[in-house]
Amino acid sequence: MRGGGLPGLALLCLALGSIQCEASEPIVGVEGEEAIFSPKIAGVAKEITWKKNGHKVAEWDNGTVMFFQSLKDRAELLDSGKLTIHSIAQEDVGTYKSEALVDGQYQEDIITLQVLARPSPPTLNCSVVGDHVLFRCTGDSELESYARYRWERGGKVVDLNTITIPLGEDVGHSETAMCIVSVSKTEVNSSISLSSCFPEDPSNVRRRYVLVVVVVVAVAAAVILTLVYLYKKGHLNTIHSRIFGKRSGAPESTGESPESEKQLLNLGSNSNVDVHLKESKGREQSAAEPIADDMEPDDTGSPPKPKRATVTEDAPVSEPSSAANLPDETKNGELDTPAKLEETSLKEESQ
Questions:
Q1: Could you tell me which residue, 245 or 282, shows the higher pLDDT?
Q2: The last residue of a domain, from among 116, 151, 179
Q3: Which residues are in the Ig-like domain (predicted)?
Q4: In terms of Cα–Cα distance, which of 60, 56, 83 is closest to 70?
Q5: Which of 124, 146, 165, 313 is the most exposed place for a label (fewest CB within 10 A)?
């Protein structure tokens, strides 16, 4: 980008006393771009030299090219004197002077280089002004004097930083407008939805509220119908007891219906009655059985116990009888225990 000419450069040419001195327009570029210096040379040059702020940075001599300082490996120099610097940065800012030897005389040209920071994406906003919607595009304030704006909408381009659209125009929900900011050769852009800037139709607002109410009523009706169904099936009490019974420490329900639980209770009570009846019958049968002479009755209802033998002082102590007169159990070396006697008595009664 070429900027305005600098009168001081023309005075510098006169002070140098050169045969021919040109002061070209300054170059304005953005970081990362290329800067192209095209000096004005009349005739065919045999030797060309470029200096930056008085220091040699490039030289062309009969086809041999050399670069110095920061231009090494990122610059080009042609026999026409055209100098190209790739990926310019702030360190390249300065005054460049070309010296071309033509027919034994030097021709000079002075060009300044200004490097700008990369622009940021623009900020977009919209507002209703009268019967139109105004869309405004705003870029970096420090680059405002170098920036160019244009809007693109539906294939149409408007070279302005603001555009207006009538309120009555039909704008689709997906339609967008894009603002493009150009600084030198660099472009950045931002987009905005047109429908977001237009006032909403009151009928659309009413429809949205009605839709919300319908959804809420439908959900409430579904919940009520579910509760009624669970109540009729008897599941609601079970769910209630499981949830609140655990919290209060009550025993957990078996999950059976009330009728089933009553039947289980009746069965349990009947079984207890049967047990009591069987015990009472057993006691009556025991009471009805005759008590043997050698058995001692027991008031507690237990089976009779063998009578204890009583020994009188006058009765002589009998001598142990021989093994032939003893019972069979004694012959075998076994003593009659109360249990053995009871068993023998029961066998005799059964016979």
A1: 245
A2: 116
A3: 1-112
A4: 56
A5: 313
**Beta-bridge partner residues of 126:** 135
What total of structural domains would you count in the chain?
3
Tell me, what amino acid is at 234? G
Give the other-Cβ count within 10 Å of 341's Cβ.
16
Give the CATH number, domain containing residue 64.
2.60.40.10
CA dist., res. 274 & res. 38, Å (int): 124
Q: Which of 152, 102, 115 is nearest to 28 (CA)?
A: 115
144 within 8 A of 184, measured Cβ to Cβ: no
What is the model's pTM?
Answer: 0.52
Q: Is 287:294 a contact under the CB 8 Å cutoff?
A: no
Residue whose entry in the numeric block shows the structure tokens 């009413």: 206
Residue 317 has pLDDT above 80, yes or no: no
End of a domain among 246, 274, 304? 246
Structural domain including 107 reads: 7-116
- Helices of type H across the chain: 7-16, 202-232, 235-248, 258-288, 328-331, 338-350
User: What's the token pair of residue 145?
Assistant: 């004097």
Residues 40 and 21 in one domain: yes
Same domain, 187 and 236: no
Which amino acid, one-letter code, is at 66?
A: M
Q: How far is 245 from 238, CA to CA, in rounded Å?
A: 10
d(CA 313, CA 308) in angstroms, rounded, equals 16
